[in-house]
Write a structure and sequence with these properties.
This protein has ten helices and eleven strands. The protein is an alpha/beta fold and 255 residues long. The protein has two domains: 83 residues, 60s Ribosomal Protein L30, Chain: A (2-Layer Sandwich); 162 residues, SPOUT methyltransferase, trefoil knot domain (Alpha/beta knot, 3-Layer(aba) Sandwich). The strands form two sheets. Strands 7-6-5-10-8-11-9 form a seven-stranded parallel beta sheet. A four-stranded mixed beta sheet has the order 1-4-2-3. Helix 5 links the parallel strand 5 and strand 6. The longest helix is centred in the last third of the chain and has 19 residues. The radius of gyration is 20 Å and the shape is elongated.
Length: 255
């Protein structure tokens, strides 16, 4: 197969960049992998593992020149490793947190920037979230950015799709999860709220935030207290990290 055939840009394919992203997709079986390309002069233990794993999974693995990888990659942080992949495999909503005693499921609603999205997923995964809910959209074109920004967490995180946050909230409330989100009025500090039980946490994007209809029906409204007067909200990635790690802290304290 000619090198150009690997990166021809089929409409249902995307490019994952970097060893961490490619390894995550391969180990998590999060999406079909059509081919893995590695720069000819790149040799280390990680690449040797990647070659063996690709061979065992029947995935084409090829050494190519730097120009071929550079033409397919969007950035310069690929480190000589890319993979042509298919769409993300999604789980059903009922599978998220199904085996957890106190599920912690989050939804990123209206986060449009793929880098911010990936960074937020990275924080949620590191803090122990059992699953992620997203709205329907074609994330394929941004798959490489999301995977790279999340350090592969977007491939590891069990992810489901819901048409709206209200639909997802109805599902998880019926399963006994508390539906929570941040708000500017009528909210309780995250350090005073009990976040150790079953929880469905909705985090809004920086531009749209949480809709009034969702705020009106949420079980718990949360605020992140500041140490000094400041009338600006935290960005999505920072707020997600603060919220997720407070959930982790409270759950660790209950053990």
């Amino acid at each position: 197969m000619a090198e150009s055939e690997h990166v021809s840009g089929a409409p249902d394919s995307a490019i994952l960049e970097g060893f961490v992203s490619v390894r995550a997709a391969l180990k998590a079986n999060s999406r079909p992998i059509h081919a893995i390309l590695v720069r000819r002069d790149k040799w280390d233990r990680g690449i040797a593992w990647l070659e063996r794993a690709a061979r065992d999974s029947g995935i084409p693995f090829e050494r190519v020149d730097a120009a071929t990888i550079g033409a397919a990659a969007q950035g310069e942080t690929h480190g000589g490793v890319i993979a042509q992949v298919g769409p993300r495999r999604f789980a059903p909503l009922e599978a998220l947190g199904a085996e957890a005693g106190a599920p912690f499921v989050a939804m990123l609603d209206g986060v449009e920037d793929p880098f911010n999205f990936g960074q937020a997923v990275r924080a949620l995964y590191a803090a122990g979230a059992h699953g992620l809910v997203v709205r329907p959209r074609n994330w394929l074109s941004a798959a490489g950015i999301v995977a790279r920004a999340s350090a592969g967490a977007s491939e590891w995180m069990p992810t489901a799709v819901a048409d709206t946050a209200l639909d997802a909230a109805a599902h998880f409330r019926a399963r006994g999860l508390t539906v929570a989100c941040t708000a500017q009025q009528g909210a309780v500090s995250i350090y005073e709220a009990d976040l150790s039980g079953p929880l469905f946490l909705v985090i809004g994007g920086e531009r749209r935030g949480i809709t009034r209809s969702f705020l009106d029906q949420a079980d718990l409204l949360l605020e992140i207290p500041y140490a000094q007067p400041f009338d600006q909200s935290l960005g999505t990635t920072a707020a997600t990290a603060v919220l997720a790690f407070e959930v982790m802290r409270q759950r660790a304290a209950r053990v």
